[in-house]
Amino acid sequence: MNSVLKNIYRIIILIGIFIASIYYFSKDIKEVVFDFNNTTIMEDATFPLVTLIVGEDEINLLHGYSSNLNANKLRESVTPIGTDQGFEIKVRQMDYDIRKMNYEIREFHGNELIESSSVSVFDEQEDSKIAKVKFREELTPGKEYAVKITLISSKSQKMYYYTRIKLYSDAHLHDQITFVMDFHNAIKNKDEAENIRKYLEYDSKADNTTLAYVNIHSDFEQITWGNLNPKIVTDVVPTIVEIYSDIALIRLDYFISAEIEGNIEYYRVMEFYRCRYSTNRMYLLNYERTMESLFDVNLASVSKSELKLGISSDYEVPTLASADQTKLAFVRSEELWLYHLDKNEIIKVFSFVQEESDFIRDRYNQHDIRILNMDNEGNMDFVVYGYMNRGNYEGKVAVILYHYVRAENRIEEMVYIPVDEPYQTLKENIGKFAYVNSKDVFYIHMNNRIYSYDLITHKLSELATSVYKDQVVVFKDMGIVAWQGNSDPKLSETILIMDMESGEIQMIESLPGYSILLMDKIDSNIIYGFVKKDNIITHVDGRVLAPLSVVEIASLDKKVLKRYEESGYYIIDIEVKVNVVELFRVQKADGNGIISYTPVATDYIMNQIKSEQPVTQVTTRVTDKALTELYLDLPSDFNMEAKPTEFSTINTIIFQDPTVRLSGMDDDMIYYYPYIMGDVAGSYKEASDAIALAYDNAGVVINNKMQLVWERGVKTNSYTLDRFDNLSWEVTTSKTMDKCMELLRNDKISRDSNSDFTPIRLTGISLDDALYYVYTGKPVIAMTNREDGVLIYGYNTFNIMIINPKSGKVEKMGLQAANDLFEQAGNVFISYLD
What we know:
CATH superfamily of the domain at 49-167: Immunoglobulins
Helix content: 10-25%
Number of helices: 9
C-alpha cells in the first residue's frame, strides 16, 4: 500500500514539475517572430537637387548622397571658376527646408583639406535657395580640386553633393555652352539645323539605320531626329565633364517623349560635345548622341508574342528562366521584371521609378541589378548595387541582397553592404559573381576578395584575397567558382574549385618546379597552364612574363580532357572563341645571357561544345518613324493572347539590422579607370590599356588612388622642362636604366619632397601619348633596348630633347627616328604621378 502511494506521489510531483517548467520556459524563452504583415511602399525621392552657377550659366546638376564619401572619389562634373575664385550654388529644396550649407575644398590626390566654410544666408528664388561661395585660399590655375557641399535641413538632416573645380583666367565657358545649346536646339528643327551643317563630318560608312546612336559622321537626317519629332520632358542642364583653357567636354542628359503608332513612348537621351574655342569661331571636335527607350510592358507586341525594348544600342538583356520555363525574369531600364508566361502576368519586382516619375531623381541611372537565382514558383534572389534613388536608403551607395517571395508578392531585404565609393567605380570592383545557395549562404566577389555570409547565423567569412577578375572563372548554373591560389605567377601553386552549394573546395596542384595559372573556361570545363618557374622573367619596367609550357582543359572533377604541349613553344595568353581555344605562342631566345621570348604563329585547341538554344533572343524591326527598334522574342511555344497584366511588389519590414560590413575593402593594387563621356568604361591593371581606350574616345584616365594619369588633346605642340637644360650627372656606360630612374626619382623629390615617389609604367603607348607627361611637368624614361634608356624632358614639332646617360650629353633626336627606336625596343616608357 505504501509503495502504491509513493508511486502516486511521484507521479503528482513529476506532473507538477512539468507544468511549472512549461510556465517558466514560456516566460523565459523569447520567441522571435518576423511580422510579415508589416509592409510598406517605397517612399518617393525627397533629396534636393543642386546646380552650380558660373557667371550667367547654370551647369552641373548634382544628386545628393546620404553617405559621407571622400570628395576626391567622385568625378561627376567639373566647375570652372575665374580668378575671383567664386561661384553660386543653387538648391532646389524639394521636400526639405535647407537652413545651412557647409562646403570644403580638398586636394584630389591625398584628400588634404585646403579650406572649409559655411553659408546660412541665402538668396531666395521661387522654390530654390542660392548661396554665394568664394574661396579665400589661392588656387593653382588649371589644377583640379575636389569640392564637397553639405546641405543641412531644419531637422538637422545632412545631404552631400560633390564636384570638381578648376581655376582659369578665362575658360570661355559661356561661349562653349552657348554653342552647345544652340546646336542642341537647332537639331530639333531641320530648317534651323542647316546652320550647323558646317560642323558635321558626314561619312558614308556610318550606320544610318538607327537613332540609338548618332555621331558627327552620321547623316543629317539622323542627327536631326529623322521623322521622330521628339518633345523634351525635362530641363536640359549642361554637365561640364572636362574643361581646359580652350577645350570643353560637355554632356547633356535629358528625357524625351515621342508618339509611335498612337502610343507615347519615353526615352533617355545623352548628347556629348567636345568643342574648342578660338577667337574667330567654335570648332566641334566630336559629337555623339545615345538614345535608350524606357521599358513599358504596355507596348508588348501581342501578335508576335514579343516584348518591345524599343530604340536601343543595348542588345544584352540579362534574363533567367525557371527550370520549367514557365517564368522569365529579366532586367531592363534598371528595373527587374518577372513574367509568368503561363498566366500572362508580369510583375515589376524591383524599381526606383515612382508612380508619378520626375525622371531626374527616380530614373537616375547610377545603379544596376543582378539576378542570382529563381525556382519554379518564381521565388528569386537578386542584388541591387550602386546609388539608391529613393526609399529608406535614399542617397546611399550600397550592395543590397533581396529575396522575392512570389506567393506573397513581396521582397525581403536580406543583406545591406554599405560602400564608400560611387557607382562608377563600384561596378568595376563588384567582381564576377554573387550567389545564394540552398542553405542560405551568400557568396560575393568584391574588391578582389571572395566572401561568404551565412544568412541564418550571420557569420561573415573571407574565403580568399587577391582574387582578380582575370584569375577567377564562374559556372553560375552549376554553382561552381574556381580561382587561382596566388595572384603572383611565381607563387601560384594551386587552383581552387569551390562548390558553393556544399562549400567544399578541391584543388588542382602545380607540378614540381612549376607554377599553375588559371586562364579561362570553355563550356563547363576550366583551362589552366603550367609555367616553369625558371622561365618567368621580369622586364626592366616591372612587367612579369610567365610563358606556359603546358595548357590543359579539365572537367570540374579534375579529369584532364585535353592537353597541349609542344617542345620549344610557350603560351603567353589564350582566347576562347565559341568552341576554339586560340593559343598565343612564343619561342625562347637567349642573347648575351639574357632570356627573352619572340612571338610566333598562334595555335588552336578544338573543343566539343554543347549547343543550347537560348530561351529568349533579341530581334529587330524597322519603321519609318523610329527606324530600328528591338524586341525581346519569348520562348517559341509561348503564345501571348493579350497584353500581360502588370503587378508591383511590396517591401517587407523586418526589424533586424541587415547591415554587413566587409573587411579589407581597401586594395593596395593599382587600377586604371578610363573615363569616357564622364562614365568609367572599365578597370585595367596596365595604364596603357586604359590610355588606349581613352585615346579612342577622347577621355581621361584616373587610377583608384584618384591620381590623374592621362588626358587626350591637352598637350601643346612644344614644351621643355628647362630645369634639365643645365643638369649635371655621372656618365655611365652600363645600366643606364638605373641612372634614368635615379634622375626621375630625384626630379620628383626636388619638385615635391612631401609626397611619395609613384612611378608609372606606360609600356605600350605611343611616344606622342607619353609626351603628355612632359607637358604636365614630368620627364619620361624611354628604353632604347632591353638594358638602356634615355630621359625625355622636352619636345617640339620636329624633335625630342633627351638626357643620354651613356653619352653624357643632352641631345636632340628627330621625332621619327625616336618613334622608330622606341617602337623597336617595345615602346617601354616610365614616368611618375603627382
